[in-house]
From TrEMBL, chains A, B:
Its EC number is 3.5.4.6. It catalyses: AMP + H2O + H(+) = IMP + NH4(+). GO terms for cellular component: cytosol. Belongs to the metallo-dependent hydrolases superfamily. Adenosine and AMP deaminases family. The keyword Aminoacyl-tRNA synthetase does not apply. GO terms for molecular function: AMP deaminase activity; metal ion binding. Keywords: Hydrolase, Metal-binding, Nucleotide metabolism, Zinc. Pathway: Purine metabolism; IMP biosynthesis via salvage pathway; IMP from AMP: step 1/1. The lineage of its organism: Eukaryota, Metazoa, Chordata, Craniata, Vertebrata. InterPro entries: A/AMP_deam_AS, AMPD, Metal_Hydrolase. GO terms for biological process: AMP metabolic process; IMP salvage. This is AMP deaminase.
Amino acid sequence: MFSSPFASLWLAAVSLNNEFALKPTDDRTRAIAERVFASETKDDDVRDEISLFDVPDDCPILNQELAQHVTEDDDEEKRSVNKIMPFQTVLQVTMDDFELACKGLYRALTIREKYMRLAFQRFPDTPSQFLRKIEGEQWKPEDQVLPVFTSPPKSGEDPFCTKDFPPNLGYVARMKDGVIYVYKDAASADKHQPLNHPGPDLVTFIDDMNFLIALIAQGPTKTYTHRRLKFLMSKFNVHEMLNEMEEMKELKKNPHRDFYNCRKVDTHIHAAACMNQKHLLRFIKKSYRVDADRVVHVLKGKEMTMKELFASLNLHPYDLTVDSLDVHAGRQTFQRFDKFNAKYNPVGASELRDLYMKTENHISGEYFATIIKEVASDLEDARYQYAEPRLSIYGCNPNEWTKLASWFNKHRVFSPHLKWMIQVPRIYDIFRGRNFVPHFGKMLENIFLPIFQATIDPNSNPELSVFLKHVTAFDSVDDESKHSGHMFSTKSPKPEEWDIVKSPSYSYWIYYMYANIARLNQLRKERGMNTFQFRPHCGEAGAVTHLLACFMTADNISHGLNLKKSPVLQYLYYLAQVPIAMSPLSNNSLFLEYNKNPLLEFHKKGLMVSLSTDDPMQFHYTKEPLMEEYAIAAQVFKLSTCDMCEIARNSVLQSGLSAEEKIHFLGTNYLKDGPEGNDIRKTNLAQIRMAYRYETLCYELNLIREGVMAD
Amino acid sequence: MFSSPFASLWLAAVSLNNEFALKPTDDRTRAIAERVFASETKDDDVRDEISLFDVPDDCPILNQELAQHVTEDDDEEKRSVNKIMPFQTVLQVTMDDFELACKGLYRALTIREKYMRLAFQRFPDTPSQFLRKIEGEQWKPEDQVLPVFTSPPKSGEDPFCTKDFPPNLGYVARMKDGVIYVYKDAASADKHQPLNHPGPDLVTFIDDMNFLIALIAQGPTKTYTHRRLKFLMSKFNVHEMLNEMEEMKELKKNPHRDFYNCRKVDTHIHAAACMNQKHLLRFIKKSYRVDADRVVHVLKGKEMTMKELFASLNLHPYDLTVDSLDVHAGRQTFQRFDKFNAKYNPVGASELRDLYMKTENHISGEYFATIIKEVASDLEDARYQYAEPRLSIYGCNPNEWTKLASWFNKHRVFSPHLKWMIQVPRIYDIFRGRNFVPHFGKMLENIFLPIFQATIDPNSNPELSVFLKHVTAFDSVDDESKHSGHMFSTKSPKPEEWDIVKSPSYSYWIYYMYANIARLNQLRKERGMNTFQFRPHCGEAGAVTHLLACFMTADNISHGLNLKKSPVLQYLYYLAQVPIAMSPLSNNSLFLEYNKNPLLEFHKKGLMVSLSTDDPMQFHYTKEPLMEEYAIAAQVFKLSTCDMCEIARNSVLQSGLSAEEKIHFLGTNYLKDGPEGNDIRKTNLAQIRMAYRYETLCYELNLIREGVMAD
């Protein structure tokens, strides 16, 4: 009956939703999800042919699917959506499909809301209000759940102060099935009677995930979201034509503030590449002039001075140039993440990376600390720029945290212009291959147990407790284009059972990171400590299911390019206003040419995008990498000042800056949606723009409400 | 017989060349030229349909023309060029067409060579050597004609010193037919018996121009040059694939030097917009803090303090922002040169332009001088960057030069990092309309007579004589997309007869600028003074004949975008290595989107391109506009370090930096073509690249030699 191999899959998804969008998924959905997942692990060419999640612009397959669906239910009256919503002539789907899509999208939003609340991450008020309306409930401002960030030290206060930590709770933290639980004491731990810190439930999570997988492959929802996104694009273009000059007029009338002095945060930057190539070169030369005779390295037990180290590499820093340093990405790195990673080694020598860009080496990471402090000092001079550098925790060893915290405290690597993040590279396969860890569970334990312990008894590791105060989020990093071949399901081995050399899938990684962060945040919130957001790299390459896993778990993501490939996910990211830190210059060197970057498209449609540099060392040329990023986007995409200020405001909202700082930079009501939340005197963002965004979002959410309530 | 309305035109052009490429043009050619010219003055849409100079990629019309041509001569044997040149399989033209094209190109090169030599402008050795070979003559190094630039002041030397000028020659300078002649005395002047300073002859010039007009519209030459350019493109792509890593290896081995510390010149920048918007804003605020009570303006005879001036504009500088300053180009300026020009007025107030960006005002241009000196100081700090700002002479009044020179001397606006140029706006129509000048000849006289006089008797105007030492070139500026409707021919009114309000054509302007500069340079060279180059804006918009006029007269040009439209001219600019200062960010805001800019294409084909900012105030965002320009080009076009260093070297070669400076920045043999002329230690440009460029140019020139000698 169906020519397409996926028609039956689609049918199953449809019937699932017809039953009712809120019912837990059954075996049939699981089967669909598995097939979808399987198709994703095939290589790119094959996937391109199948195009499970995407809708071609002329939509022939989907029109067919839609027609089939209509045939299926042809005993029902064909009500056109147009009849009830005159504005919706663009919709052109039958009422059934419309209701179906809306129910699916509604459930998807409730899923995200649930996981955000569980982990003290952000879900904006506006969609929450619509969800409550659909449920016939009252939305209350006190339902708002927010992350907690450490306020900047008051004048005279020492950010490294180890006094005044709360006392030891005496709790016991122990891992079970890949997640750290907190127990009253060892006895409760032995009986696995954890304290009441709600966390995600694996079975429900997989269920939710399978539902979403089916949803993003579901014909009517794909068609509906595709058309809504097209509409959002055209609507913005009309807004621009009508209101561009009005927006500019607002900004011109706004005294004091312009794009240069509105705050912007570099929302995605790796500490090891946060200096530009010229800066690193200068630093290396200077260090040699000062420290040539200092012992900086130990090779096979033998101490080496810097002079000896450079001599062993046949180098003299005096001769070094940006070219021979060779840390900049070029044409050779395009589509070659492996070659790109090698660029982290100055002059191709890992010894120099160790010496200058590591926290742990013979000089206790002194140079790396100095370089970062120089970068911070440049940001302080620039006044309006902030950055969120990421430092690595590998999970190879439980004392990594102590060492990192000791580096942070020893060198006093603090600046009000920096907010710290922890990135966890997904390189289990390498560590397992070298027998550094017995199984994946051990890695998770190494990553999370020390923080639980420092949270229970801060004085047991004061340096770590200080450092954790300044950490705002976790990142998960690696080349997403590598396929693991594994599908995450309830049947997947538990982390402690995962002892093969192969890495688990992206979704598996993400779930266990999230589950631990969620429980950790419960504990920290209870103790009045700052919480951590989950802000993984996602959608830079690889399968679109990555974006699905993060829709469930991440406060915000870095990259998001692959939202291009799934209209359903793209629309969901829009509805939930999931922040996306985009780095078009990084993409341009690695995955996608600048002109083809979806930044402009996402921005026009109203997705919440910010601009970030990723790796100034590899990608940027000038002294102000973040300004370079903005300038190039402004030039190539012809952004208006209002566009740029909107993106800058998004970056502050997305960042780990504390509530005090956000109030200072964005205005008292920064948490409120719509024009009310915008203080143009601080943001230089036109109220017309804010009103447009708010009305448009409410309109889209209201459509969903109408679709769900139509029954 | 011919379907195309231009087929007969083309036929005439062909027969013209068949007679012999070196014969002076006859009436028939003139008729062709007039028709071509006439077609050019039609508006763009019409011209696009006709596409007189362009070759579509699939070339249907030209294949047809070619076929017709072949039919014309079908009694002749059809020798394929491929037979004699195995490498030339890409050529695919008949031998006759090949010879025809080569003869035309040969003559075109001799025309440029003649006019360059006449005005002490540059024509590179390599094409000269091939021309001499064709003529059976010996090329001698002493034939080289070069411009003379003032050396930088030695340590302790005062660049404003008015001593040691050569004595008065007592000559008389007087204008005749739009050109200044120098006479021994007034009596000789009355009899028009000028001293023997060779200059261009109008009739010959028009003859040469008509020949070139016919050539660029000639089918076989269009086809030939189109194919050669395609070949050059493919050849470079092959070179890149084969040698990219080798080039990089050379650069990595090159100690000390990288892109950051190789010299680059901003070869096209207007003094009035040489600061960025943020710099201007800061300066205005600072000036108000210091000078609020200073009288800075006179309105209807009444003196106004700065406070009063700003109050009269309803402004307070404290509230000013980059937005309200409103000097940046945006989406509104695209294709709107008129709107762009209005952006020169801060806050839309011409009073502020007068106060901050003019050399002549109530404070004697003090602020403008200070701003420029601040820009120069930034360049000095950056160490490796130079700029060639352009100041205006309008030709409205003969004392403009004296005033400008007085500003220059009074404020001591000198920096070793700046080389000065004079821009002459083509706004005769406005001045004539307001009755400021009686005819076009008067404008030319106002522009050139004072310099002739200061050259004859430097002590008569010591400040001007000092200033002229630091001036290196003339520019001709205005919106090229305005059509004058006038065609320049021997029948055109002489400048003194041109008394209508309409402006003469671009070519007419260019010829008279050139003719005066050529004669002036003869005189200055004789006196051991520095000479002036002609470096007009050309090919930013408007008719391709602009590029033809400048091929004949200009040492180098700014923009050159329209070379895209004429393969013949593009190939000629390549063969003669005419430098082109390109400003893709400026184009992006005015005429052509960044991705569509031909910079990369021209660079790959081997045209001699440099990068320049045009107007940092309007186009750039960062503190280092020239670096921003390079960075964006590098990112969007994925330029390699070698590409960027080649462009930087081109910019130094193209500039008015003195021979001493060029030797210092590029190496002793900088004037030599090919690898011999490149000192990688100074330029960081790979010898492989230089060898590739040199061999490729020689190969193309040799093809022409073979074509011409084939008879």
